[in-house]
Automatic annotation (TrEMBL):
InterPro entries in the record: GDPD, GP_PDE_dom, PLC-like_Pdiesterase_TIM-brl
Stated name of the protein: glycerophosphodiester phosphodiesterase
PANTHER family (alphabetical): GLYCEROPHOSPHODIESTER PHOSPHODIESTERASE, GLYCEROPHOSPHORYL DIESTER PHOSPHODIESTERASE
Keyword Hydrolase among UniProt keywords: yes
Residues covered by the GP-PDE domain: 19-307
Catalysed transformations (reactions): a sn-glycero-3-phosphodiester + H2O = an alcohol + sn-glycerol 3-phosphate + H(+)
Keyword terms, alphabetized: Glycerol metabolism, Hydrolase
Similarity comment: Belongs to the glycerophosphoryl diester phosphodiesterase family.
GO molecular function: glycerophosphodiester phosphodiesterase activity
Organism domain of life: Eukaryota
Entry's EC annotation: 3.1.4.46
Amino acid sequence: MSPSGLDLSEPKPFKMPGFSVIGHRGNGMNVLQSSDRRTRGFKENSILSFNSAAKFPIDFIEFDVQVTKDDCPVIFHDDFIYSQENGIVNESRVTDLSLSEFLLYGPQKEAEKTGKTLMRKSKEGQVLKWEVDSDDPLCTLQEAFERVEHSLGFNIELKFDNQVVYEREFLVHVLRTVLQVVFDYAQDRPVIFSSFQPDAAQLVRELQNTYPVFFLTNAGNQMFKDERRNSLEEAIKVCLEGKLQGIVSEVKGVFRNPSAIAKIKESNLSLLTYGKLNNVGEAVYMQYVMGIEGVIVDFVEEISESVTLMMIRPPSPSSPLPSPDLKDNVAAITRPEFSQKEIDFLLKFLSQLIQH
């Protein structure tokens, strides 16, 4: 339905297409202070990064959407955007900027123009110049639909500030603005919505029943005043109350609480994960064994290759085989079966690794 009214119907059943690899902010998030050059390859959340990720056998990319003060959905992760002029760092809230003001940051589409020097504030409070090997201008949600490889699905994270309490009226306005762009430009592209903001997640489900909605949770790795955000058990409640289709959990929360997987499946919910451990092939394989349906990863090339070897799937436009010979040379692998004792041992081992 259109985003003009509420939809209280039962959610449509949803399943990921096999075990899915999802590119985090495209071809991986940027960590400017990291010594690993892979974290500074492509500007995160850019058209260039999205299309770079599309070259690998993945099903979706994940990116963050906020709405400017003049009602344009743009793709940017951080709540605040920084620039530097004459040695002075300036800070602006993304949602307080107009579209034209937002697009002035970083490289410009017109080669003859120079944008504001884009900076980024790290979690440690350090403000660094946002330098990557392959830079690209900031972009809108509409541009992503128009310019990104059409076979690639979009996992649209609806981004809100953790420190702000939002009124329902404001959330409805923002979500309808995003939905209008999706309905106008998505065509037949697969789209999933997700949000850490429980009210926003439930509202976007109320506003439409065309696209599945997932609730994002830190699963207890970070605690919030809103209890709904603090555990997988609470995440299940949010989904069932709001008729959502799935959960996206920080992966360590799942490894620490593996019994929650069965509860999630019993509730007819899908389960995806995100987090640094998803850049480790062995941790991804363990999730495949456990029945998790997909992983959001930064190292798209490496993990997508590992998953292709782990589970050969029939070729499709969104997940082609890497080479014609691979299917002949590698036996098709079905989901391996382990005894509960073996799984418990592996989970205990992983849990011990997580603590260190």
